[in-house]
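Quick one: examine this chain and its backbone structure tokens and tell me how the chain folds. Here goes:
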Amino acid sequence: MLRHSLSILALIAFAAACGDKTFAPSTSTETAAPGQLSSPEGEGEELGNLSQELLDKLKTVETDEEAAELEEEIWDAWLVSGSATVDTLMERGIQYQTAEDNDGARDAFDRAIAIRPDYAEAWNRRAVLFFNVGKYDEAVADLEYAIQLEPRHFGAYLGLAMIFESIDRPAAAMRAYEKALEIHPHLEAAKEAKTRLDRVVNGSPL
């Protein structure tokens, strides 16, 4: 019952957690064969440093409004791959996904990953697609790999938590929510979910 009752809410929240952002493609025109990197020298490192600085600030801001502004900047940074080709593929994938063309979205995300296998957001976005079509094992695998590439990807942890909750794994879900909150302490939905799951897992009183 829990799996079915949470599936629609989790889908909406999971998609929202990935940000509905407009792409700002890289200025690079370089393309790469599958498995090869195509980011200009230094650009990927620069973007990585930017997102890390912003993530550091998430733990120090005091208001939800400040946190929301930082979160938006972080998603903006994560949505730039360093490759114009990958940025275009990602944009197409999200457009296909919005149009419920799952085959088109899968092809675009697969190609983005083939070109930039070290690009965490491509794995995260494909995980959303897998989740949408009920392929939870594949979604979990992609999210775990996204986290391996970007250990402070609070959106990936939030996605994992929602999947685990939807398939009746409350302890795993609570751990994932806790990880998301360690990175982004202002995630109100994660706070509420953690409190709810604590009652289930540990029998905490209301």
